[in-house]
């Protein structure tokens, strides 16, 4: 039943670490790609991973390059359809994907569903374990959405979308009501108005990976508060991955 699937390695940080309880496992899953289009999916997953981790001529985006040893990135190449109608046109059928990965024995901490459909709006859920990306897309889209899904980072820009408001349950991560709380690398940084879609919240840098969609920068970094949060999470994986997952998941806001 699973002859249609091919599991390939994109990046294997330290091949000697084979225990999935000690690694950060990311799986790219193709949805809607035909056999002649498989190389498009392969190139996309490779470029997005390289932009984040930095394993082939690129520096990567800290703190992920500092944790290369525990990072393993795989891709599930398939002509299957894993998406259904959703909020922004299409969304992943995450239940089918997780069941497939479990059946195939593929470990995952983050699922990156890639839908072969030009023009869709990629999105994820704060503090979740999966994201929906659309092919083709910008080279920073995976790193941006990973900030949401893995670290529950907020968007650092202003936007009005009907009745949607900011995620007030999560303010205090990379968006602050008090600019004096914006510390960057142990130094008080500058403060810029506009964060979490709201005009009265502050972000620490004019542009970053969580802002870049509206600032036009194709090669931004995570800002100081975001790097600090990501580093704390990745450090917990090196100590006790089970403890990380024992923490209740209280984030449920859609971000893109």
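-> sequence recovered:
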């Amino acid at each position: 039943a699973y002859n249609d699937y091919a599991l390939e390695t994109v990046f294997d940080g330290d091949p000697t670490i084979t225990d999935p309880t000690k690694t950060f496992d990311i799986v790219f899953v193709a949805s809607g790609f035909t056999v002649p289009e498989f190389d498009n999916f392969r190139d996309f997953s490779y470029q997005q991973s390289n932009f984040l981790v930095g394993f082939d001529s690129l520096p990567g985006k800290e703190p992920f390059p500092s944790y290369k040893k525990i990072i393993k990135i795989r891709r599930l190449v398939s002509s299957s359809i894993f998406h259904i109608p959703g909020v922004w046109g299409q969304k992943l059928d995450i239940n089918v994907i997780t069941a497939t990965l479990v059946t195939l024995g593929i470990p995952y901490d983050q699922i990156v569903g890639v839908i072969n459909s030009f023009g869709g709006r990629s999105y994820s859920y704060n503090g979740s374990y999966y994201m929906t990306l659309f092919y083709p897309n910008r080279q920073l889209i995976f790193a941006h959405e990973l900030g949401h899904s893995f670290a529950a980072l907020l968007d650092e820009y202003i936007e009005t979308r009907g009745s949607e408001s900011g995620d007030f349950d999560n303010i205090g991560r990379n968006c602050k009501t008090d600019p004096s709380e914006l510390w960057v690398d142990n130094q008080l940084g500058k403060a810029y108005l506009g964060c979490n879609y709201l005009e009265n919240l502050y972000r620490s840098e004019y542009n970053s990976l969580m802002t870049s969609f509206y600032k036009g920068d194709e090669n931004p970094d995570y800002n100081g508060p975001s790097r600090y949060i990501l580093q704390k999470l990745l450090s917990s994986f090196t100590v006790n991955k089970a403890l990380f997952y024992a923490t209740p998941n209280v984030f449920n806001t859609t971000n893109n």
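The chain has a mean pLDDT of 85.
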